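Contributing: when you submit paired examples, paste them exactly as shown. First protein:
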Amino acid sequence: MTFINVQNLSFSYQREQPSIINQLSFTMKKGEIVGLLGPSGSGKSTLLRLIAGLEMPTEGSIVISGKVVFDDTHFVLPEHRGVGMVFQDYGLFPHLTVLKNIEFGLHKLCKKERHKRVMEMLELVQLHGLEKRYPHELSGGQQQRVALARALAPKPALLLLDEPFSNLDVDLKENIRKELGDILRKAEMTCLMVSHDPKDLDEICHYKIQIHESYLPPAM
């Protein structure tokens, strides 16, 4: 059964410019991990922002878990889409501990339920014992796992990963790839992951979507 349905999606920053994304369509099943492959400037990260609701498409439709979040008559706000996102720079709050970073999106839960969910996430990403540390006290791989735990904690319908290995050195990347794949499968998470490196996607994803380089605005 189709869980994510993107149809004829197009996007341009300005009407007089050609589309950065042009009539893109794809579907995903629940629990699938799908990779989005393409060079810089091909619209990969923009597509994630469109799905998350951080940008508005010029046309097309997006359906997540049977709910229309965008079409000609609908635009659901990001906070109501059930989408989690991990950015390239992880976006951790430097003044909050690991525990408080993970807890950040759980304000709707009571204190007891928040604590329980944070403990589940710490176990999932193997960060028990580090919950009182701050982001600057963690390695790059540990920071990535905190960002992943924070995104997974509210139980999103869909997780979006934007170049999750871009800030890791080559040796660390090899280990983190396997860890990330294991975490996503254990969480039974439906996930769309962006990368310019085919190896990242080959080791984690069920299949890849190729996006070719598209229009880039001229240099000023």
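Second protein:
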Amino acid sequence: MNTDWSVEIQKVFKSFSYAITGLAHATKRERNLRIHLTITVLVCILGFYFSISVTKWLIILLAIGGVISLELVNTALERVVDLVTSDYQPLAKQAKDVAAGAVLVYAIIAVIIGILIFLPEIIQRLT
């Protein structure tokens, strides 16, 4: 027997399945996302190796989540632009370039965060 709440729960689970399908699709087809995910694994290994604090983990996770989320949004925007036009359009190129620029800015910030968190740990181990 379907009650109102069970229907809503089914809808929520269905929306999660769409999101997981999107993640899987982007991971298979987007080189830059695979690069970000590989770096994520390496950063997590470093985090465990250096036993970084919970606060540092939170900062790292926000940086990782931001980069990956922006990469996914960039991919979605590229798909929509490609759907709208297959011809070269200056505004379409600008939209793609600006979205890619947003990923680049956040990725640079994430690298700086990583350096600020891990460089002191590395220096401490070396001395």
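If you have annotations for the second protein, write them as plain sentences, like these:
The mean pLDDT is 95.
Helices lie at 4-29, 31-49, 54-84, 90-126.
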